[in-house]
Amino acid sequence: MKIIIISGTPGCGKTSVANELLKLIDAKIITLNELAVSDDFSFEYDNERKTYIVDFKVFLPYILKKIKKIKKNEPPFLIIESHFSDIIPKKYIDFAFILRCDPDELSKRLKKKNYDVKKITENVQSEIMGNCVNFLIEKMLKKPIYEIDTTNLDIKSVAKTINDIIFAKIDVERYYLGKVDWLEKLFQEDRLAEFFD
Description:
By secondary structure, this protein is an alpha/beta fold. Helices cover 42% and strands 19% of the residues.
């Protein structure tokens, strides 16, 4: 069983892409966010940040048991998606994808999801700084990390790109880490002050 990690800032399309990918490959899926907000793992709610605080010391062992249980059924692939999918130990990761989105577009998407201004700002800043990328880089994976800019792509196109990378149907050069750099783009446009006080 090969494990596919799909990470990225909220609003970049992880859940939708993961579910679309299920139509293309024989796989099981774990959506970490859904599990994390259950009563077993969320012990308090951070009102200021409007998010649950998860006890990862309890959560991660549970996820690893879940992975082993799924593996017994021998599906070819397991998709694990979340903005904190970097919690998965590197020995379990066969493919790592980070979905990216232009800060302007991401702001629009998060507004549509009814995020408040503070949470939108926090997530857009996270995307500009490439936090999800940095967390995966810190794992020092032996496998390549791929970045896909979802800004102008529909969900089916992104899922197909992931499928094509997995099955070596396309040249992956353009998806290697480092091709997306919002910080540099905004610096060149002299727009950083719009996103950072």
